[in-house]
UniProtKB/TrEMBL annotation:
Transmembrane segments: none annotated. PANTHER family: DNA POLYMERASE III SUBUNIT DELTA, REPLICATION FACTOR C / DNA POLYMERASE III GAMMA-TAU SUBUNIT. Signal peptide: none annotated. This is DNA polymerase III subunit delta. It comes from Erythrobacter fulvus. The lineage of its organism: Bacteria, Pseudomonadati, Pseudomonadota, Alphaproteobacteria, Sphingomonadales. It holds the Pfam family DNA_pol3_delta2. InterPro entries: DNA_Rep/Repair_Clamp_Loader (IPR050238), P-loop_NTPase (IPR027417).
Amino acid sequence: MTRWPNHGEAWRQWRDALAGERMHHGWLLAGKAGLGKRDFAMAAARELMAELGVPQPQGDHPDIILLTYGPKDDKAERAAADGKPYELARSIRIKQIRAMQKRLITRPTLGSRRAIIIDPADDMEKAAANALLKSLEEPPVGTFFLLVTHRPARLLPTIRSRCRTLRFPVLSDSQLGAMLEEGGMPHDRAAIAAAEGSFGAALRFAAQDLAPLAKVIEALLERGDDGFTVRGELARLIGPRADRERVQAVLDLAQALAARAARETDDIARRGRLIDTHAALVSLAAEAPTANFDPGMLPFEIGSLLVSAAPASEPAHG
């Protein structure tokens, strides 16, 4: 498992609570994506399960239940059951929460405790969130919830109010560099700068070979695009049939570079344009997985948003 140098304070708070007389039943693990929150949740759940005189399995634990994106539809469920590749849903659904709640009726398998990990909790359907709230309001004895969240504000206020929050800070550039090297990857300065403190983002940057794209994105932000030449290069580098993962990686990169440029500029007007561009990229990233975008036009949409932040920029849609 990856060593996470940003988990020290979270571990201190968790272990202090675990050693106390009454452990809180609901926990929010909050921080941007790529900070190891799921790794923490799994390891923390293992510590929670450790009871004197109760042997613990080395592999999957019957009393640690992980809810994350499941199969997209019935066809995907059949493929999953057959051990074949399948498409994932884009949310955590109410039937997953209902299935988990049925298990809560019975006692834990090995000891007296059970852990429910939901990752990411902010991608629960509304009905799923409302169903979960009932379990958080009246948790069975010995049941603990660890909700991994990248955007806590998207959770129901009533869910947030019933949980204790552990915050995970971003990683420093030196920490990111050391983690990349430990993973056998080069100390890529461009990847580290674009990752904005997220190891997950740095890994995607390296895996997707985004260094050439970073240069084009920076050029669009700094110099604009009098014609469509630079936007055309952006589209070429993204690729004509880019999959969801690559498009998301490009959008994450564009957001990170726009945010960094906003922090670094002394020009108030330019900072405002960069903030607006960042917000528009965030909205586009939220819409892209479900909206019916033309794959060939999406890179130009991204490029035009970037151009709108450049000095003497044209309107976002050219």
